[in-house]
Structures are given as structure tokens and as C-alpha cells.
Amino acid sequence: MEAALQTNIQNCYHCGDSCGDEPIVAHEKAFCCDGCKAVYELLEENNLCTYYNLEESPGLTGKKPVSEARFAYLDDPGVEAQLINFRSDKICKLTFYIPQMHCSSCIWLLENLFKLNPGIAETTVNFMRKEVALTYLHEKTSLREVVELLTRIGYEPAITLADTDGKKTTKRSRALIYKLGIAGFAFGNVMLLAFPDYLDFTKGLQNNFGSFFGYLSIILSIPVFFYSARGFFTSAWEGIRQRMVNIDLPISTGLLALFFVSLFDILTGRGPGYLDSFTGLVFFMLIGKYFQQRTYDTLAFDRDYTSYFPVSITVLKEDGEESSTAVRNLQVGDRIRIRNQELIPADAILLHGRAMIDYSFVSGESEPVEKVVGEVIYAGGRQVGESIELEVVKEVSQGYLTQLWNDTVFSKNEAQYLHTYSNIAGKYFIIVTLLVAAGALIYWVPRDMDIAMKAFTSVLIIACPCALSLATPFVHGHTMRVFGRNKFYLKNTGVVERLAKIDTVVFDKTGTLTEPSEAEVTYTGKALSQDQSQAILSVLRHSTHPLSQRISEAMKGSTATVTGFQEYTGKGLVGEVNGMLVRVGSAAYLGVPADKQNDTLKTTVYVSIDGVLLGYYTFFNVYRDGLNKVLGDLKDKKIAVLSGDNDHEAARLRELLGNEAELNFNQSPVQKLEYIQKLKEQGQHQVLMVGDGLNDAGALKQSDAGIALSNSVTNFSPSCDAILDAESFDKLSTFLNFSKKTMSLILLTFAVSLVYNVVGLTMAVMGLFTPIVSAILMPISTLSVMTFATLSVRYAAKKAGL
Amino acid sequence: MYIIFILISISVLVAAAFLAAFLWAVRSGQYDDDYTPAVRMLFENEVGGAPKNDKIAQKQQ
After folding, report:
1. How far is A47 from chain B (nearest CA, A)?
2. Mutant choice from B26, B30, B56 vs A, greatest count of A C-beta within 10 A
């Protein structure tokens, strides 16, 4: 009675999920499941309830029971050695990636792990990267125990095939920070040394110590030139080698001009040079790069199938005993056991059990596929339901899924995107600059050799492409951050530009347009009385079949006792409730003649009571919220859908997308890829691909901009240019429009700096140029460009509602 | 006025020392994570469970 009073209002104290009809009440708190309760009790026992005080319901649901036997492979010394970073005779150090980490409670609990297992000496969390660096005493505990403890409290570390494959992922490069530090150091000091030059009353100082200051500046600038600025030079050189002008070319020209003119001036005693501008420019540009780089450390945009596959698998020995083995060591002929929700790691033949394979991520089919004993199951599918036994027929690296990755598209060269906006603008900019400089030179040489040199170099320096080099990265960098705040994560700033040019949008269906975890269940047939639906529900509740579970989730109400329950693999269920014989299952099972079956493409489940056929359930995809809005906003673009599923949803999609949209069904991953290729080559379209699964991986890579939609951004997503959190799907069109707007913002920024450049160039051409003007003009134009870029993006974002 | 040579050498040396300190800080990983320490700082140490001591005790064992 007490439990009944609390129904529907209560949320789990541990994970915050709704407790449903029957909350488990313990310690005066409600829990949604035994898993959550167990975690709470474990924490309470160890005085770790601060966990619940830091954030409300911080826990992770314990509904998915985990079999701890599956970590047995961690006892294998080979696997252990691959995972551990450091081992001494007492301690082991290693780093786990824990995607579930989401709040400060998580940090707190994970850093207090030593209270739960005394063998753990220290844990340090890196929240941004969702990593835990762990030190444990291997005499007191084992790797397996540590992982099991983490799993028990809900923070199962993601150990994937890639981790055991070879050495650790390379540590984040700190080179940029070093470069930044050195450039900053040189900038500050050179500026100080250049100071006497700026002011009139220090002229005496300059006369006495000018050469000393100059030489010291050179010494300070050399590391900036050779180390900090190296990236710009190498990138420009790469561009030249591919016969392209990229943004780094004008920058490099400017930097080279600044450095060598200054060197020449100082060494010949002509003047103090412009090394302060040189170091300052490198410093500011590196700041821009730093902000770009640090935005998304945690997101991996280039994962391949090895991050998707599990590390270990249960292998059955000849005597029937189970043992856990690393997937790497799996051999043809091994017998493996796959449990509910586990992935099939290699192509295998089904030996035993009822396989319901969810291929939605791999092929795009929306419903689980039933396989019978003797059929080959391809790697990558996820088993739903009971555990099954399989015999491996192909090694992991030879499987169907793996073959896809060996396609040449996956080694596509990113260089084809050098034709970006600022690169094109930069090309004209540098040509004009060179023309003006040459003009000044030709004009002055017959008149005054000294002014000619001065004018020529000043033109190059003053026109030094501050605006170009800073405007684009700053505008795009800020746009990236605005998008990031709205859960749309771009791989790099170049993607903003590509998004702006998109004229064709191609969607995947399953998991992208549709909500992967939901299906709408509709009943067609004779109306059911309350008793009848109760009887059907009662029978369905006994089955673990995913379709039964979907229907029973959709049906509300209480259940009655079932007698004589039987489940026939691949056919259906039977059971008796209150004297009614209920049969639920496929058309063949209930003897529905083929001509009476409606829409054979749809997944249907028929129901009969006491031998009388009542009707059937059909499953419809549930389309994402906001889909209508997104599609409405994309009216001016060509829209297409590529689906790996069959065409039973064609009519509904047509209604949603309009008559002009191209709908393609039953598409294999390779067909999807070829479709995008065709669009690009024949139609000269700029294609945006939005997909979610491995089956879209080729298409995502082939498109101009590939967006992977993910319900949880830290989960595995195929390699792409951007990751969009499913929550923000409705903003997709806003993102595209905003990208377009940023292009005009860049133009505007160019205009602002053009004003400076025109003034500066005029003076430079007339030979009126003095160091003090240069010293003032350079930083002002740089700063104003940066400020303008920042403020304009912010203003535009506010207006666009992002 | 030749004092200026000494003064500037000193100033550059001091600045170089700071640069060295900065490079050391980066090397030791202080710039790898700029979020978690800010959160960690706000956790209170509960009575009876000062983590530091526990750790030392464990290491001694």
C-alpha cells in the first residue's frame, strides 16, 4: 500500500530515473532498481554519501546487470601489460577512459575510490578528457578487481580493441603551449627593447644602445622564427608544393619579410627593425591556434572499427567451460558465447540459441533481425535477448565490417579542402600587395633609392596579412565555441566554411531521422476488451523477445497469472490467462494466409485468443523531435534520404520531406558512398551528410561535411567532420544558417582591417613611414580585428538564438 | 650609463627564469587539465577520512 501511494512521482535517489510502478524503498529512499540500491548501499557502508550531496541523483542507472565473469580476460598478463602504463615491484599505473563521467559528484567518487578498495593508492580525474589515472598496489588487488569495482558503481571503463592493439594513444601534444610560451617571452622582451624607439625623449638612449638592443632582439627572435613560427612556414610550403595558395602563404611571406628586413636593418645599422611586430604577430596567431586546439580534447573524430569492438569475448572450451579471451586472440573455429547486448566481434555461424541481431548501427535496419541456427552472423551486430553460441568463421581483421574500413575512401586526403574562403581571398590579397609594393619600388628607384627600399619593405610589412591571418581563425574559432555550447562539435574551423557552402543535405534514416530506441506500436484489428488486453500483456511480459518487450512497454496496465507459457523460437508465444488461450507471434505461427497479410515489409506481430485471430501490432519509426522544423528551414536545399532499411516507411517520409526529396532504400554502405560521390561529381553539389552508424561511415567521409549524430557524444561514432548531440538535432538548420552568416562576418572583418591597410599603405607608398607609425598601427589593427571578430560572432549568435 | 647593460642582462635573465618555470610547469602536466583542479578544490575533506594520511599509511605498509 505504501509503495502504491508513491507511484509515478518518485525518481530514483541514485540515478534520477523514474521509479515506475513499484519503487524499491530502502533506507527511506526510493530506487528504481536493485542495481541502484546496491550501489547506494555500497557507498553508504563506506561513508561515501557525500556523492549524493554534491549533485542531485548523480548516479548511473544500475538496470543493466553486468556479468563480472566477462572481465576475466583482464587476468591475462598479456592484456594487462598492454593496458598498464607503468609497473614497478609494488605499484601499477594506468589510465582509463570513462565516458559516463558527467558531474562533480563523479569526480569526487572516483577520486575517493581508495576508500572502497584499499588496494587502490591514488586516482586522479581529468574531467575534460573523461580520464582517470589510477595507481594500485598489485599485491593487494588486481586490475580485474579494480575494473569490477568501477563497473559495480556504474563507471565501467571503456576498454576497446584499440587500447589493446598497440601502444597507448599518443599523449596530447604540448608543443603548441611551448611555442606560445617562447613567443610570449620573446614578444615581451623585444617590445621592451624596442620601447626607446617609440618615444622622442629616449632618442639619446637609442643612439647609444641601439645596436645592443638590436642584437639582443635578434637573439630573442631567433627561437621564435625557427621554433614558434615553424608551423606557418611548413604549412605554406606544403601549399606551394601542391601548387596552391593557402592562408599560411601570405602569413609566411609577411613573417619572412618582417624578419629579414629587420635583420638587414639591424646588422647594417639602418634602424631598429620590426622584430617587436614579428614576435607579437606570431604570439597572437598562436593564441588563436591554441584556442582552436583545446576546444575538444575529449571527442575523437577519427575512430575506426577497433574502438567499436569489445576487447574480450567469452570462449567455450571443449569441455563446455567458459573462459574470457581477448578478441585479438580469437581464432577461426573458436566457439564463443554472446550475451544480451553484447557485440559480435567476428563473422560467425550460429550454433545454439535464438539470435536477434540488432544491426541498426551497422546496416541501418531498424528492427532486430532474427537468425536461425546455421546462419552466418556478420560482425558488428548486437545480440538482443538470450545468450547464444557461435563458431567463428573469420578472423576479426577479415570480417565484413572490417573490409569496409579498408576501402580507399577512408584514407582520403584532407588536402582537397585547401580552396577555402580565406585562401582564395588571400591569393588576391597577396597579388595586390605584391603589385603595390612593386609599383612603389618602380616609382621611387629613379628618384630616391633609400625611400624606394623603405617604401617597398613597408608595404610588405604594413600589408602583412594581419586581417586575413586573424579574422578567419577568430571568427571560425568563436563560431566553433558557440556551436560547442549548443552541443554541436566541429572537428576543426575549416568545417564552418564547408557548412556555409552546403546546398544538398543527405540524411540517413535509421537512428538519424528516427529515434533509435523508440518505436511506435500500433494495433490494427478487432477492438480488445480490457480482459483481453490484460491477458495479452501478461503473456508478453514473460518473453524476453525484443518485440514482445516493445509491445508490453507500449501497453499499460496490470498483469494476471499465466499458465502453460511456451515460447517457440522464431515463431511466437502461447499462454493461458484466466481461461483464455493467448497466442502471439508471426503470421506463419498463427496461420494467417499470405494474401491476408498486410504490408509484408513491416514488422508485424499477430495476436489470437482462443484460436480467433484478433489483429496485429505494427511498429513504426518514431521521428525525432523538431524534424519538421529542420526540414522546413532546409527548403532551399536539395534533400535526400539514404536508408539501409526497406521502404515500408516511404509514404511517411515522402509526406515529411516533400515531393522533391530523393528517397533511396536498401542502401548498402558502399552504395551510400557512391551516391554521395555521384552527387558531388555530376551535380557539382556541396553535400552535407548526416548519419549515425557505421553504415554511414563511408558516406560521411566522402561528403563535403559529414555530421555524425549521437545520443551520447562520448559513445562511439563513425569518423566524421562534426558530432551533433541528438538533443540539438532541431537546431541543425540554425547551425547551417549561422555558418553562412559567419562568412559575411569575415568579410566585414576584412573591411575593418582594410581601412587600416589603406591608410598604412598610402603612407608607406609615399615613403612617410616611420617606426613609430608602424609600432602603433600594427598592434591596433591586430587588436581591432580580434575584438571585432569576437564581438560580431557573439552578437550574431545571440540574434540567432544560439 | 653602462649600468644599462647589466640591468638589461638581469631583466632578461629573470624573464628567462620565468620562461623556464613555465616550460617546467607545462612539462610536468599542469596545463593538461585546466578544469578538474578547480572542482577538486571545492571538495571538503570529511572527518576521519583525510585522504592524504590514508595514502601515506598505505605506502608505508
Report:
1. 9
2. B26
